[in-house]
Amino acid sequence: MAVLVNFTPGPRSLWDEPVAISVHGLTPTQRVTLHASLRDEKGELFESSAHYQADTVGQLDLRKAPALGGSYRGVEPMGLFRTLQPQKPFERLVKRDVQTPFHMDLEVYEGHDPQPTKLLARVVHERGFLGPGVRRIPVREGSVRATLFLPPGTGPFPGIIDLYGSGGGLCEYRASLLAGHDFAVLALAYFRFEDLPEELNDIHLEYFEEALDYMLKHPEVKGPGIGLLGFSKGGDLCLSMGSFLKGITATVLINGCVANTMTPLHYKEMTLPDLGNDLERLKVTESGLVDLTDFWNNPLEKPNCQSLIPIEKAQGPFLFIVGQDDHNWKSEAYACIASEQLQSHGKEKPQIICYPKTGHCIEPPYFPPCLISVHGMVGRAVFWGGESKAHFMAQVEIWEQIQTFFQRYLKSKESTFHNKM
Fold first, then answer.
1. So where's the catalytic machinery, residue-wise (predicted)?
2. Pairing mode, strands 31-39 and 45-53
3. Cα–Cα distance for residue pair 121/402, rounded to 1 Å
């Protein structure tokens, strides 16, 4: 009897969907090793493996059977995804071209040998980033460099602008997946892309205002306001957009800072200085990894408070997503500062959701947690924080929290949007 590997619901799935993996046709209680691998667009290899034992009728279901060793132990239906590790140290798994899927190669080998040789079965599973009917529209309007993702069907759809951090470039994979949940999402680049500045120097908020105007005027984007989703540096940019620009309904920050960071921010006659840092506070672990936790200045101390973003001027509600083991900066403390700042001005307390053992690099669900990688600005390997399993599980819940928040404030007829006077 041939050994067969099944992926449920089928041979193709979207990256933010869980899959069930099962193996059929094994001998009763047969010991096998499952090996998973995929290559990114640069050709970098990511791998994981786990030892299993079939049941008494020769079946193996990863939703029920515990891994007995390898990359992980215990019952983890998505364990092979969680533990994908780069062959080249410090590489991070990201999707650069959402128009093509990742191909995950799953092999079943006989036995639990460290280097098993007898191949019993092999299957390739496609993990895509563009759901059925999702439209990808490159945007080159004025100075705006972005990609708009529209859901299937006829709009208008609730609109979101999606900003990533200090790595730069145009990151589309979160926006493309989110568009599959009935949002019109603009993935916006702001440096290191095409004719945009190569370095993160002297940001002008007028660029982001232009992107906001594009969304507000788009016939397939629902008004009266837009949602913002920002990670890391993108988080404080979203806070600045909400504080100085009109037309924003709700904002989600993933491990963001309450002060302007890394470079001065300009808007009309106003300049917000960047929150400084102190190289003497830069820590290096015993294994040579950079830890940035204490690197940044305290935004509450003079003169650093000049970098604080005046979020009391902002429109709409906030959701702060916080990894409590963030080693890039003190995200939880920043969220608390934001809460106090808003309440001291008579504003509504923001929603803050904290995740223990979760680090800085929070991705869409089922990405392997990135605990260590090369920092785009520092140029060295940085410890981002987090414990793999807890971080992985947090990413799944956070994805649901983001959608729930935007559904409440962007789709509801009882929107909390108010125009500034």
1. 232, 326, 360
2. antiparallel
3. 38
Which helix (H) or strand (E) is 400 found in, with range?
helix 388-406
Active-site entry in 360, 373, 391, 415: 360
Scanning 133-268, the segments in alpha helix (DSSP H) are: 173-179, 205-217, 233-244
pLDDT tens digits for range 132-191 = 999 999 999 999 999 999 999 998 999 999 999 999 999 999 999 999 999 999 999 999
The answer to whether the CB of 191 falls within 8 A of the CB of 204 is: no
Tens of pLDDT, residue by residue over 344-387, are 999 999 999 999 999 999 999 999 999 999 987 778 899 999 99
Instruction: From the candidates 232, 307, 339, 373, give the one annotated as an active-site residue.
Output: 232
- Rounded-to-integer distance, Cα 295 and Cα 300, Å: 15
Say if CB 255 and CB 321 are below 8 A apart: yes
Rounded distance between C-alpha atoms, residue 162 and residue 155, angstroms: 19
Q: Name all domains of the chain by residue range, CATH numbers in brackets.
A: 4-128 (2.60.40.2240), 135-411 (3.40.50.1820)
Is 232 an annotated catalytic residue?
Answer: yes
Q: Is the pLDDT of residue 407 over 60?
A: yes
H helix or E strand, kind and range, residue 129: none
Strand residues in 290-362 grouped as ranges (E): 290-291, 318-323, 351-355
360 labelled catalytic: yes
Rg (CA), the chain: 23
pLDDT digits (tens, 9 = 90+) for 206-246: 999 999 999 999 999 999 999 999 999 999 999 999 999 99
Nearest residue to 15 via CA among 97, 129, 94 = 129
Residue type, 101: P
CB 289 within 8 A of CB 384: no
Task: Write down the catalytic residue from 16, 162, 325, 326.
Answer: 326
Lookup: tokens for 421: 């006077």
